[in-house]
Write a structure and sequence with these properties.
Epox_hydrolase-like; hydrolase; Rossmann fold; nine-stranded mixed beta sheet
Length: about 300
């Protein structure tokens, strides 16, 4: 059953920014509430956020892409204003939840998936498990290609230090955003408030720690799940665009080279002077690259390099 949120729901949910986003709703899936946003019409384009974040990271892309596509974003279970999974969070569990939401929304046929950071790993897992349901992938600064990750995330895998460090603090919210944005003008008071509100959600820290311990250790991202996932994904040759910010401090741009080796049939693009959120820092260019790619899935590998 679909339950549509009203304008007041954003206030009820405690949204720190205080703006009302068209198309935002609450959807009940398997007895749990998922906050999602649906705008536009056309082929479905699903946007997946990173760890500890929310669908609000896709505001700029809803604005730019909903004229061509039915754009769907969601708070992944346990993050933002979505209920957690009934079991410990995992990449596969999140991918399954995305599939369940799409079914609840009545989305038929294959979808186009765009994932940032953790959302990229979720998108790859979705595609590896359900290749017939995926028309194309866009992976933006995605987890899953290399071992290196910011020290701030590695130390969260240490018990009980991780939970202590995830206590909601305004200074921590500012530090988080400094690690994500190259251009400090994006670190606005509104975005700081929103980041603090996300960290204050009751299930955020637990979900984040469960995922971090599945995916990595204090030494970095575990090789096993990355190797297995890419081994399943690569032979499928799903049309894929891999994007990266050249100043990403969370997942370094060297991961783009690993992506070239793992998914050689893909297109690649490196954004100059850009951090971990190119969909925000380079919103226009990001939307143009995604739009152009989705209209041309059949480019030959040797022609799939962008500058």
């Amino acid at each position: 059953m679909l339950r549509h949120g009203s304008l007041d729901d954003e206030v009820e949910f405690g949204h720190a920014v205080g703006t009302q986003r068209p198309g935002t709703r609450r959807t009940e899936v398997d007895g749990r509430t998922i906050r999602c946003r649906v705008t536009g019409t056309g082929a479905p384009l699903v946007l997946l956020h990173g760890i500890g974040r929310s669908l609000d990271d896709w505001d700029e892309q809803h604005e730019r892409l909903s004229g061509q596509y039915q754009v769907i974003s969601l708070d992944l279970p346990g993050f933002g204003w979505s209920d957690p999974l009934p079991r410990p969070a995992s990449v596969r569990g999140l991918a399954d939840a995305v599939a369940a939401l799409l079914e609840e929304l009545g989305v038929d046929g294959p979808v186009q998936l765009v994932g940032n950071s953790l959302g990229g790993a979720v998108a790859m897992r979705f595609a590896a498990d359900r290749p017939q349901q995926v028309r194309a992938l866009v992976l933006a600064d995605a987890a899953g290609f290399g071992a290196e990750v910011a020290v701030a995330l590695r130390v969260l895998a240490i018990r009980p230090l991780g939970r202590l460090l995830l206590r909601p603090r305004r200074s921590a919210a500012i530090d988080t955003l400094r690690g994500c944005f190259r251009d400090r003008s994006f670190i606005t008071p509104q975005r700081i408030d929103a980041t603090l509100a996300l960290a204050s959600r009751p299930h955020s820290a637990t979900t984040m720690l469960q995922l971090l311990r599945e995916l990595g250790t204090v030494r970095g991202i575990r090789p096993g799940w990355r190797r297995d996932l890419l081994a399943r994904l690569a032979p499928l040759r799903i049309p894929t665009l891999v994007l990266w910010g050249d100043k990403d401090l969370i997942l370094p741009p060297s991961h783009l080279e690993a992506a070239r080796e793992a998914l050689p049939h893909s297109r690649f693009h490196l954004f100059p002077d850009t951090g971990h959120f190119p969909q925000i820092e380079r919103a226009d260019e990001f939307a143009t690259l995604v739009g152009n790619f989705l209209t041309d899935h059949r480019a030959q590998p040797e022609l799939q390099e962008t500058s």
